[in-house]
Amino acid sequence: MKKIYTVILAAGFSSRLGFNKLTLKIDGKSVIRRAVEPFIATPSRKVFVVTGFEEDKIRHALHGFSVEYIHNRQYPKGMSTSIKAALSFIQDGDGIFFHLGDKPFIEKRLVMEMVRIFEKRKPSIVVPVHNGMKGHPVLIRIAPYIREIERLTGESGLREIIERHPEDIMHIQGIEGNILDIDTSEDISLLRKRGYHIEEDKD
Fold this sequence. Notes:
Blueprint: E1 4-10, E2 25-26, E3 29-30, H1 31-36, E4 44-51, H2 55-61, E5 68-71, H3 79-90, E6 95-100, H4 108-121, E7 125-130, E8 133-134, E9 138-140, H5 146-150, H6 159-164, E10 169-173, H7 185-193, E11 198-199
Parallel strand pairs: 1-4, 1-6, 4-5, 7-10
Antiparallel strand pairs: 2-3, 2-11, 6-9, 7-8, 7-9
């Protein structure tokens, strides 16, 4: 079995909401905990959580999970700094999941399917697609793209690298959770309309 790692990006400000969306609770469970949970006890050998803003709250929300933390002191300079902060921890991996901490509706079943495809069909990049939209997590063979990742700046993420290498990608059928994130109060209202109980973390 190939060496698979996971990197969860959880360092941002949540500036559009005015509070840390990753500690928002959905039916009693925080957004970040929901985002990390599908990668626990999967073929991922290590799960790294890149923290920055309100690191203590993220650690508290993930209490009891077997994860390793990478603190990104440069997090105010954008998502690219969190991706680069993880590089030295993952370079020996065969494949790396990159996932966003504000996507709380990923299913373990899909994570396992992405690993199966990565190992059997050997694409360099696996991306789930739902309703024509590319989503997360992304599973990437890290070695060919390290130099490009090192050159990322600002809010640049892996998307621009992926878009430069369409021949390397295998798209698979995803679910709504692959594209559904929490960025605005409208997103929270939508979840409430769907019957979820939403509460801001008071700890």
